[in-house]
Amino acid sequence: MEPGLKAILRGLLGGVLVLAASATSAVCAERWGVVLLHGKSGSENQLALYDKPLAAMGFLSARPQMCWSRQRIYDKPYLDCLGAIDEAIASLKARGVARIVIAGQSLGANAALAYAALHDKEVAGVIALAPAHYPEFISKRPEIAGEIERARQLTASGQGERKTTFTDINGGVAITVNATPKTYLSFLASDSPSVMPGNAARLKVPLLVVSGTKDKSQRGKDYIFGHAPAHAMNRYVTVAADHRDTPKAGREAVLTWLRDLQGK
């Protein structure tokens, strides 16, 4: 081979290597963020235990107050509640975040699945910690079935936007909520947009499910995880914890999964 041709080839190869290194560096330099969603009757402080370890990994985090918090339950229909996630994502993007994971506990995990199913281009992954809230089952309980029928009758009579009191279930215990019939149905009816297997089936991003072996609300691996499309990063992890303590017990599993998701 002529010396001049060799020099040209070396130059081209060097340029390719520089471009590849630049692309790799850009991927590694992408800033990541996590939106953390609390459970039913909880507060935005519920998952504060993740703030410091996430920051140590270079992740930014946001913990919005959702419309099922103790102070607000339920002041908006289910899908409208997800607007708080839009706001949290916007705040992270304003701080330079390019890749966002949605994580939640209990009803927050339910919402993380629903949001990712609807907005897959905004989300890089979903973490479901002790996922709960099962309208397809709760709606069959006698005390809830009667309330759903009442909510439907009120809606049919033109009172769907008028707040009243209804019975709901939290942790297997009946609670009273103040909501419009339409909002109540959006959370509790069997065709609610919050039904998790259907949302899991629509995911286009990887899923981590962390379930406590002492958590009576969990329905096993097949219920949610089994419906998610196959992905190399999908993980189902069990921890020795009850419903409330699953986020703490599963923290290392979450952080490890996030590192793997980053490719680190």
Question: What does the model show?
Answer:
The chain is of the alpha/beta class and 264 residues long. The protein has 2 domains: 177 residues, Rossmann fold, CATH 3.40.50; 60 residues, no CATH class. It has 11 helices and 8 strands. The strands form 2 sheets. Strands 2-1-3-4-7-8 form a 6-stranded parallel sheet, with helices on both faces. Strand 1, helix 2 and strand 2 form a beta-alpha-beta unit. It is globular, with a radius of gyration of 22 Å. It starts with a helix and ends with a helix. About 6% of the residues have low confidence.
Task: Summarize the model shown.
The chain has 264 residues and is α/β, with parallel strands linked by helices. Helices cover 42% and strands 17% of the residues.
Structural class category: alpha/beta
CATH superfamily of the largest domain: Alpha/Beta hydrolase fold, catalytic domain
Strand content: 15-25%
What oligomeric assembly is this protein in?
single chain
- State the helical fraction: 40-55%
> Could you say what the CATH topology of the largest domain is called?
Rossmann fold
Query: What's the CATH class label of the largest domain?
Result: Alpha Beta
Radius of gyration: 22 Å
SSE series? HEHEHHEHEHHEEHHEEHH
Q: What distance lies between the first and last C-alpha atoms, to the nearest angstrom? A: 41 Å
The largest pleated sheet is described as: 6 strands, parallel
Number of helices: 11
Strand order of the largest sheet: 2-1-3-4-7-8
Give the domain tally: 2
**What's the architecture of the largest domain, going by CATH?**
3-Layer(aba) Sandwich
Mean pLDDT: 91
